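Write out the bound-state structure for zinc ion.
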Amino acid sequence: MAKIKDIRYRTPRTNGTRSLSAIKYIARHHSATTSGDFNSFWRTWNERNGWGTGGYHEIILRDGTVELCYDPHEITNGVAGHNTPTYHICVVGNGSFTREQERVFDERCRYNMARLNVPISRVLGHKEFKGASTACPGINMDMVRSQLSGLDVAHASTPNPHTDELDYKKYRYGQTLMKWMGGAAVKRYQQDMNALGYKLTVDGSFGPASEDAAARFQADHGLIRDGIVGVSTQERITDELAKLNAPKPIKKEEKPVTVETRKEPLETHRAAWEWAEAEGLLNGERPADNLSREQYATVLKRQDERFEKMVREIIAKVVFGADRVVSASHRESWEKMIEAGMTNGERPGAALVREQLASILDRAGLIPEKTE
Ligand SMILES: [Zn+2]
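---
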């Protein structure tokens, strides 16, 4: 199994994408150099050719390591005029390749033939494409194809442990986004970031502001802060947008006991309510409120005081008859007694004690003098 160095997350790209079914060819290239990798080739591609996307999907380095540069749905710059239907694999070398590189090319080519549904007849060398004028790929392609057809078919269709290479499906924008890229995917990214509160001008151009927003988003969510919108950042953006759009959990209404503002008691309670208010047990406000225990204590205390007062009044009126009006049957005698100075005219209903009776009898001259 080839050693894979996945650099898809950081390779620049501006070409755009295609559907996998659009892929009809696998092209083999050589680098026409004796060494090098994506980074060193990038200078030529970008600075000399002015490309925004690299030349190949995969680069088989001199030691046989595979640099995964782009997912297959991205269009790279391998063969002018034939890039949309082609998946490009470059073998580093100049017409001479190591045994390990050939082994790895065989493995990678089979893997891509299987997953992209490309037959051997469409595995072509760069110079075999119509209109191409080059020495690339620096190897006899009939030999390469014969090598590919020589091994059993089962090998090619064995489930490949590199299936994670298809993880571009996790990309919200179909590809990694980074500085100086442009297009519809960048526009979508800018719209999403606006929705998440990172204010961006939606111009479809990934400039410093878009990069800064990405870095801030990454810092806010504990991601590696590199300003490159790769798969993990895109997955997180999707998550955060989902949270934003999720229906808000219904908050249980907290009802303070004093909030109820009904002004009138229910009819069933009206009579009792008015009585309680008239008695001064309640102040007649907010009849629907809950009653707290301390309020209940106050009600009890008022009720108790009211009872005490009532008892005092009853004692005053009934026992001592303080306010009693003289009854008709006793009125004449009572008034006579007042005139005669035998009583002060107060409390006609009060009980008469024996010492008071003695005074009355004495004032009336009815107590006999003691005889010798
Ligand atoms: Zn080439």
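---
The beta strands are 4-6, 25-30, 58-60, 66-68, 86-91, 123-125.
Residues 152-164 have pLDDT under 50 and may be disordered.
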